[in-house]
């Protein structure tokens, strides 16, 4: 049995634990007994992208130690998966520590969630049910750094009840960009407002993406604009099933229903 | 042009001004949108585009990694073909060479082909100072020059101007510089182009000296190439008696055949055409045809500094197509002036700091941060410059330069150190999350909930305002994922799950009538026992 | 130290990390394989189609119909002199049988002043190469093509390209050219995209490009 480690990411850990829980639910449903190596923290991307490559070195080391012994790492974030795959090498090289360079080279492969589902598990229909109008924002790092391509769309199209609406200008950056969102706040917001506008023109109830960082930014704008559109991580939609229409106490105890989705079921419940 | 980029504020401030100009935003969105569509169309019809990009990258890498040899070969080839080769370490030397040649021919004017290198060295100012008028003949350059403006795009320096503004400039200024625009000039692009044709023709026909750049310089043969659209380049390259070309040392190609790859990559990436209307090549002096005195000024001006950085040197592969500008979401919103350099946009954000050096000027140092690192630039770059990689690399250089220069660490330095310390240990991270969770519990009472039930905070004062002026902030989860995993054994021990976790589902995603009621989330935060796993 | 020495020395120092091997061994360049599955006719058809895409006028011709087609191309144009026959610039080596009778011929040469070129209503020329993929005509300014200014200053350019001069793509064209000669690559009439990135034909070069593809 291969050992599969969930790299939940620091952002999801502290701000969006439901996303992590949804990944666990989803993977267990697909027969993957995912581990959560408790020593994990952050991939170091915030430091690297701000120019503090030396300060990212302890985090890269920590990542290597935390996931040592895993055969694969699953990351519910295109950005953090990209950081592990493309930036750890840069950090290691600049550190001048050949041991760290070797460590990064031999680290377990890091898969963004949809890559793992489609490429490793070979599934696109994950048995999800989500009867809503949804539009998908392909985050830059998923789209261009990792090249996840149409994997998320294939997964979404296989979700029963879900209507996938095309997002105009989908490939364009939402303006989050980590430190950019604060260092160049006005430009970031101008980009985000255009993205939010496109989202609203689709008539979708839910904006979905594979990165909660971008969703925090777009969602923050949508929420401030009282748009009524909610944002959800892709994992939470893929974890949703029809089973949540069962009794509420059962539902609450059932890891499958963990995830923030399925509003229609409450209506049915009421 | 008499304008200067000196004194441009740091990018965030310059961008703020640009963002307030709604006309500019409209002009840019329209123009970049048009060119993006055209480029995508003509690139899409080349099956082997990726292979071509790889070939383009390889050709330029070959040159850069062996530049001294190729420069010497280029010099020999040019000399053998009857051209005179000059070398210039910097702008001052290059300008002096051009001024000297113009003076020897006792002329008080030169006609110019659009050239980034001559903009970079501010040749026009140097010529003006020597009493020599430099007439820009590219339509966009003419608009910029007549408008006493600054270029804002590599390919289309007047991209920030719309047709109505251009008409105004032509009506007002053409008469002061030569043949006036007709009184009944409309803002129809065809008419504006005709006015430029009439205005410039007398200058082409009488000029003795022309100044150009070059898109490519072939080491093997000494062939120079200018890629253009309007024919102003051909006018300058063939009608005057004397031609001076200022060529950055990175413009070298090894062989004549290498033009094949470049002439496929450049037009499709640049103007979104299968081929640009005119490409001229010339190899020294051709008896009986064109200028009989040909000079080439090989310009360093910081390029060897860029070459010395193995990560940053890929910026020298740039063939100035400007595809990266046209796809850049930051450039589209701020325009080129905010970058404070003749090289705006993503390529400017990596080239300018390298040419000028980092650590001495806040404006320059702000450029590597003028990007969300979205990667669209790399995707379209015909010579595969990994601009995001170089941006991140240069951010590192900026931080290092500041740390070396300053005796005390900056607030950002300390914040990063602290974050690094906290985040390099799961124990410390967990403790910090608990503290944040407690803060979140308090904050949740102040906040409201976003669709989906998530508690969010609105506008906040102080340093958080940069985020929260326009964006709600999600409140930290009361129980982190790591605490949940520990408490519930990764969700396996169901009995420990509290009912409160699910109460948030009482809220509805699809209900658009719902705005800021707080049912779902506040109840959730109150019910959940987040502190249970305290070890 | 001279600027030359300083620049070369600095560049050498900057490249200390690069191994001292032949450039071609250090970096391999792999070009896309040329496409070979198009027939001659397809290549020439594509050329015609792509030239026309630039809003140039394109016609097929045979050596015996060229002269009528040139005459037709000139018909209806106003002489810039106001009256009299059109003044048409003809480069040395241009087939005389392709020049219509009812024009005033100006024979091009190094001694013809630029202002004289500017008084010509049009220019006739042959070409060196045609490129199908991009709809490009390449002049190498040899026989029949004139010096570079000849096909630039007049407002109309009628260009004869032999069908057997048309190559499929850019690499074949570059390979066919002699680097020592000057070249002008022409893809449609002069144009600009400088106003709102909208393409407008006709700035400084000939505003009308009329291409005759001669032979099959």
Automatic annotation (TrEMBL), chain A:
InterPro entries for the chain: Cys_rich_dom
Domain Cysteine-rich per the UniProt entry, residue ranges: 6-84, 134-218
Stretches assigned to coiled coil: none
Compositionally biased residues, Polar residues: 259-270
GO molecular function: oxidoreductase activity
Superkingdom field: Bacteria
GO-annotated cellular components: cytosol
Region span, Disordered: 245-270
Protein name: L-lactate dehydrogenase complex protein LldE
TrEMBL record, chain B:
Protein name: L-lactate dehydrogenase complex protein LldF
Single Gene Ontology BP annotation: lactate metabolic process
UniProt key word Iron: yes
SUPFAM superfamilies referenced in this protein's UniProt entry, alphabetically: 4Fe-4S ferredoxins, NagB/RpiA/CoA transferase-like
Domain LUD: 71-299
Domain 4Fe-4S ferredoxin-type: 315-385
Source organism (scientific name): Pseudonocardia ammonioxydans
Spans annotated as Disordered: 488-535
Source species taxonomy: Bacteria, Bacillati, Actinomycetota, Actinomycetes, Pseudonocardiales
A Pfam family recorded for this sequence: Fer4_8
TrEMBL record, chain C:
Boundaries of every LUD domain copy: 116-214
InterPro entries for this protein: FTHF_cligase-like_sf (IPR024185), LUD_dom (IPR003741), NagB/RpiA_transferase-like (IPR037171)
Superkingdom, taxonomy of origin: Bacteria
One Pfam entry name: LUD_dom
Record's protein name: L-lactate dehydrogenase complex protein LldG
């Amino acid at each position: 049995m291969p050992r599969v480690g969930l790299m939940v990411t620091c952002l999801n850990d502290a701000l969006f634990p439901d996303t992590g829980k949804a990944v666990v639910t989803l993977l267990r449903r697909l027969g993957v007994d995912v581990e959560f190596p408790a020593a994990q923290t952050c991939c170091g991307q915030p430091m690297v992208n701000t120019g503090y490559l030396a300060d990212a070195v302890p985090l890269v080391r920590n990542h290597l130690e935390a996931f040592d012994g895993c055969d694969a790492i699953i990351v519910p974030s295109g950005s953090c998966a990209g950081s592990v795959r493309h930036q750890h090498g840069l950090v290691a090289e600049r550190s001048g520590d050949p041991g760290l360079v070797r460590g990064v080279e031999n680290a377990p492969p890091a898969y963004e969630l949809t890559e793992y589902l489609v490429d490793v598990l070979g599934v696109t229909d994950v048995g999800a049910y989500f009867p809503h109008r949804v539009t998908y924002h392909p985050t830059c790092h998923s789209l261009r750094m990792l090249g996840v391509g149409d994997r998320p769309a294939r997964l979404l199209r296989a979700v029963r009840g879900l209507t996938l609406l095309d997002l105009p200008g989908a490939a364009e950056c939402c303006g989050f960009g980590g430190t950019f969102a604060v260092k160049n706040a006005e430009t970031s917001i101008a980009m985000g407002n255009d993205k939010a506008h496109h989202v609203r023109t689709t008539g979708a109830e839910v904006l979905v993406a594979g990165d909660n960082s971008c969703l925090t930014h777009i969602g923050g704008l949508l929420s401030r604009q009282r748009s009524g559109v909610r944002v959800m991580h892709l994992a939470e939609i893929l974890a949703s099933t029809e089973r949540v229409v069962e009794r509420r106490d059962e539902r609450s105890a059932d890891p499958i229903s963990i995830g923030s989705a399925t509003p229609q079921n409450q209506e049915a419940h009421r | 042009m008499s304008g200067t980029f000196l004194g441009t504020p740091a990018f965030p401030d310059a961008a703020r001004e640009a963002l307030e100009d709604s006309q500019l935003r409209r002009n840019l969105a329209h123009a970049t949108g048009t060119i993006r569509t055209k480029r995508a169309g003509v690139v899409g019809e080349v099956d082997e585009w990726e292979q071509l990009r790889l070939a383009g990258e390889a050709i330029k890498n070959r040159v850069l990694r062996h530049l001294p040899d190729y420069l010497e070969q280029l010099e020999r080839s040019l000399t053998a073909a009857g051209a005179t080769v000059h070398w210039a370490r910097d702008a001052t030397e290059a300008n002096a060479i051009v001024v000297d040649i113009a003076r020897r021919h006792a002329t008080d004017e030169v006609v110019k082909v659009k050239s980034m290198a001559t903009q970079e060295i501010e040749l026009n100012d140097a010529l003006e100072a020597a009493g020599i008028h430099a007439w820009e003949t590219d339509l966009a350059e003419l608009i910029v020059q007549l408008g006493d403006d600054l270029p804002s795009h590599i390919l289309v320096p007047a991209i920030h101007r719309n047709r109505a503004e251009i008409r105004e400039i032509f009506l007002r200024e053409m008469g002061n510089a030569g043949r006036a625009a007709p009184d009944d000039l409309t803002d129809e692009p065809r008419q504006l182009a005709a006015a430029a044709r009439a205005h410039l023709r007398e200058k082409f026909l009488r000029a003795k000296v022309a100044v150009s750049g070059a898109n490519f310089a072939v080491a093997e043969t000494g062939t120079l190439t200018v890629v253009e659209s309007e024919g102003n380049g051909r006018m300058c390259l063939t009608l005057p008696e004397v031609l001076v070309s200022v060529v950055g040392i990175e413009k070298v190609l090894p062989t004549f055949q290498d033009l094949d790859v470049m002439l496929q990559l450049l037009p499709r990436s640049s103007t979104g055409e299968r081929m640009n209307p005119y490409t001229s090549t010339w190899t020294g002096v051709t008896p009986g045809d064109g200028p009989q005195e040909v000079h080439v000024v090989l310009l360093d001006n910081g390029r060897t500094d860029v070459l010395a950085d193995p990560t940053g040197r890929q910026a020298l592969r740039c063939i100035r197509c400007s595809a990266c500008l046209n796809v850049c979401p930051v450039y589209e919103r701020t325009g080129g002036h905010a970058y404070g350099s003749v090289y705006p946009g993503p390529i400017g954000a990596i080239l300018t700091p390298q040419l000028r050096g980092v650590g001495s000027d806040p404006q320059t140092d702000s450029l590597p941060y003028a990007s969300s690192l979205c990667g669209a630039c790399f995707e379209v770059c015909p010579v595969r410059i990994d601009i995001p990689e170089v941006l991140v690399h240069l951010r590192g250089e900026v931080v290092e330069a500041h740390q070396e220069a300053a005796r005390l660490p900056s607030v950002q330095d300390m914040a990063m150190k602290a974050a690094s310390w906290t985040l390099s240990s799961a124990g410390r991270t967990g403790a910090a999350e608990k503290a944040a969770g407690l803060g979140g519990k308090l904050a949740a009472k102040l906040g409201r909930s976003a669709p989906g039930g998530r508690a969010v905070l609105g506008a906040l004062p102080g340093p958080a305002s940069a985020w929260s002026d326009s964006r709600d902030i999600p409140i930290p989860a009361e129980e982190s994922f790591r605490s949940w995993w520990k408490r519930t054994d990764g969700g396996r021990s169901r009995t420990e799950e509290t009912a409160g976790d699910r109460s948030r589902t009482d809220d509805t995603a699809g209900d658009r009538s719902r705005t800021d009621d707080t049912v779902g989330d506040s109840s959730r935060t109150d019910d959940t026992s987040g502190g249970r796993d305290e070890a | 130290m001279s600027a030359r020495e300083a620049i070369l020395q600095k560049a050498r120092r900057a490249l200390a990390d690069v191994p001292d091997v032949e450039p071609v061994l250090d970096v391999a360049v792999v070009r896309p394989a040329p496409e070979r599955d198009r027939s001659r006719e397809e290549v020439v058809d594509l050329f015609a189609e792509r030239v026309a895409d630039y809003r140039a006028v394109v016609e097929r011709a045979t050596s015996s119909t060229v002269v009528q087609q040139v005459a037709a191309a000139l018909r209806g144009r106003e002489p810039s002199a106001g009256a009299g026959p059109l003044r048409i610039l003809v480069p040395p080596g241009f087939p005389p049988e392709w020049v219509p009778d009812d024009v005033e011929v100006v024979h091009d040469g190094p001694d013809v002043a630029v202002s004289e070129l500017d008084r010509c209503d049009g220019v006739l020329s042959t070409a060196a190469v045609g490129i199908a993929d991009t709809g490009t005509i390449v002049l190498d300014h040899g026989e029949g093509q004139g010096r570079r200014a000849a096909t630039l200053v007049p407002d109309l350019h009628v260009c004869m390209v032999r069908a057997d001069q048309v190559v499929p793509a850019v690499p074949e064209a570059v390979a066919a050219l002699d680097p020592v000669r000057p070249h002008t690559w022409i893809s449609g009439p002069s144009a600009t995209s400088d106003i709102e990135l909208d393409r407008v034909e006709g700035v400084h070069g000939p505003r009308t490009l009329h291409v005759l593809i001669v032979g099959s």
